[in-house]
Write a structure and sequence with these properties.
The complex is a heterodimer of chains A (811) and B (130). Chain A is α+β, with helices and mostly antiparallel strands and 811 residues long. Chain A has 22 helices and 29 strands. In chain A, the strands form six sheets. Chain A has an eleven-stranded mixed sheet, with helices on one face. Chain A is globular. The relative contact order of chain A is 0.15. Chain B is mostly helical. Helix content of chain B is 75%, strand content 0%. Chain B is built from five helices and no strands. In chain B, helix 2 packs parallel to helix 5 and helix 3 (44-70) runs antiparallel to helix 5 (87-118). Chain B starts with a helix and ends in a 12-residue tail after the last helix. The chains are: A alpha+beta (811), B mainly alpha (130). Chains A and B meet through helix 1 and helix 2 of A and helix 3, helix 4 and helix 5 of B.
Amino acid sequence: MRSSIAGIISAFTFFCIVALDSKINNIPPLGRFLDPFQGFWQNEVKNEKLPESIQLPKMISEGVIYYDSLLIPHIYSENEHDLYYLQGYVTARHRLWQMDFQAMAAAGRLSEVFGNLTVKYDKGMRRQGLQYGAEQFIKSIKNDKKMMSVLNAYTNGVNAYIDQLSYADYPVEYKFFNYKPEYWTPLKTALIFKFIQYSLSGPDYDFENTNSLQHLGKKNFDLLFPEILPFQEPIANNDSIWDNLEVIEVKAPQNMKLLSGLRKHAVEKDDPDNGSNNWVVSGSKTKSGNPILCNDPHLSLTMPSIWFSNQLTHPKGNVMGMSIPGIPCVVVGFNEDIAWGVTSARRDDRDWYKILFQDKSRTHYLIDNYWSKADLRIEEIKIRDKEALLDTVRYTRWGPIVYDQNFGNSDQKEGYALRWTAHDGSRELRSLYLINHAKDYKDFDKGLSYFSGPALNFAFASKDSTIAMNIQGRFPNRWKNQGKFVLDGTRLDTKWQGFIPNEHNIRVINPKSGYVSSANEHPANNNYPYYHYGQYFEYYRNRRIHQLLDSAKDLTIEELSGMMNDNYSLFAEENLTFMLDHLKNTDLSDGQKSISEELRTWDYCYSPQNSVSIYFEEWAKSVSDIIWDEFHNHPSKEYAIPTRVNTFYLLQHKPDLIFIDELETAKKENIEDIMTEAFLAAVKKVDQWNTKNPTLDLTWANYKNTMVQHLGRLPGFNIENVQNGGYRGIVNATKEKHGPSFRMLVEMTPQGPEAYQVMPGGQSGNAGSPYYDNMISKFEKGELYKVIFFEKDDYLKEPPQELLKSERIKI
Amino acid sequence: MYNNYIIYGASIAIGCSLLQLFFPWWIIAFPCFALGVLKQKQNFLPIFLTGFISIALLWGVYAAMIQIYTGSELSHRVAEMFRLPSNDFVGIISALIGGLTGGLSALCGALIKWASVDLKPVEKTNTSSD
């Protein structure tokens, strides 16, 4: 009797302890997690825990790190090995979980942590071959001794940090999800490169375009999806520069038949608004007479902050700016002589080839009447607490078959292979390294030639007053319309016929206008002799930037930094009057009439405190929704949806368009009906918001409710309700969960760079640190922090007083 | 009489805080278990409470110190994550979980001692010791 009571209670206690030490569904191992000695409490810090000195035996000589008041590390070392070693070490110190997580995401390994929840995501990543691309990347870097040593130094630095950790020091996310950090490898750096390319060129529309083309016919398709509208102002607006180009012609194959596309994408796409702004004004337009560069890359906003600001100094180089955790060097920044910034070029670098298999075993596929053998790559997706899942991906001469019977496609003998530049070996790391050390435009341009993807618009400014814009990437040389629709994978002549030679890529150098700018618009108009299709080019931000810069003189730093927070909607300016003129006032109640009156006097600014912009935005949205309702939400097929810019262009210029007639209503509608219906729908939607949020003021910032979301989707770890204006198509492109991932301004003075920056978040990846989100209030106001650029000599003197910490690195 | 328990509790707290510097959180079960075995009486409640209160206080006070010292940014976030009304609850729950583990372990120790006295020869039961 006694022993059974004792046995039962002991068993219960044992069970409790085991349960408190295990992760159950979404609940962390509570005992482990809440233990104040080693659990999450240990991640609470008053100020960052930074030691006075650390010992790193693998360093060749001693170094020093200055942390400034924003927790930006300024790293000094005597040689390059130590520099990248320290960069790896310091990045891991602040961002270990983030870089580890992103490398796992790119490799399709999230299910090892999250279980069943992420299996589909992992399958999608594996089938798109990011890991395959990363392996090619490493292969091509293997011959480059210099880059390999940079990469190894960085890797060893990260691992030196991991080696020092005990459970109590783990970033809090490891404790919550109950797993351990993994050693860094060069392959993981390659995976991060591929992940960036995936997020920038991942949103392709080949299937949607194919479906729409089949549904609409060529004439209507071209009307609804024109490649460029007449009022566009491309990046390179001077046609004469291409007069002397010896163009490499490509021939379109004959007898191409229209293929059917996949009905629906099975993988989730990244936000198509992944884009950015950058511009450089020459000294002729600035008050100080120095060139000034501005840049703000728009991405899905995540915590920990996407970018990590740092300065890397050694006797032969001194560069500062934004790096991406997991990648050595600075990605966007400045050195003593030059500054550069990037935006996404949005050129199409992903094509889909339709594959025909010989039989159900899917080992052979047809190419030019010959059954070719596919390489099988077996992907083992490990799933937490479950048996691993095996998925065979077939590699063809085009690339991996992403969609087949086992993934997103029902037909047994059909498949879709992905041809993507990210699968080719490339040397972006060398490119970054060379740009970091570039002294002038010539060095910069040479460094860029190694940059294959993702395709980016590089803005450039130098101390010697050169300003330039390079549209850089390895672009397939296409015939017209190649890659816009699904291509025939059963014939070889549909392949890419080489690439546009790097010298023929678009460059703008010291233009007469006195500035260069890019905002994801078309690279050039149709006079550029190469076909340059992109899925989703911008029309408004770029023209607004031109509007502001064209006539500008004596620009100051305040004016230019204010421009990055510019909330003016050019779209509203061009369309609001038209919309109001077609509103049937007789159908409106008094309240609705007063809203339309307010709209008439509105200044077109999506300011945070303004409420009129809410009505306008919802109105324009529902106009598009109503007009294209037959394309939206089709139960089994995805169609391309015309952009807002083309929708309103057609409404204004071709009002007799047949599509305005809604399919489901028998009544033939006209523009007045649509505008009024959309207006009423918008007002209703805003009213609903008011009833749902009785305590909140109806302001644009509250309504938009911008959130910076934690990568692991931990609820308390987000930054919520960011009070910032702007929206899609506005220079300040802050949307609900997407927007400027940093803002940077650099003035190239003869004495050296003067830089300012801000990010929606902070330098630390630790949610318990004040530096996790300390920059958000300045970000909201559109203000920037001045950052210090140390000279080499500064590190050899006594450290300045205003530093947060000066840390000595000993051997 | 209570003095003894205060001394026991204090030694457990000190012992555990030292052990926790080197071992994972479940090490707290061992001193509590040992206390139960050594100080077993017919009355189990004081034993349970000694284990419970000493560990709850140890964890609770340490958590509170961390909160006060750091400004407790992270515990606010964790409170939001678990949908708790304030970050103080995170400290209280931490203390309760620690306390429960300590109390139960002490109780186990006492019960096993109690059972072994009754039965001859001594029968081994599974303990909470892994």
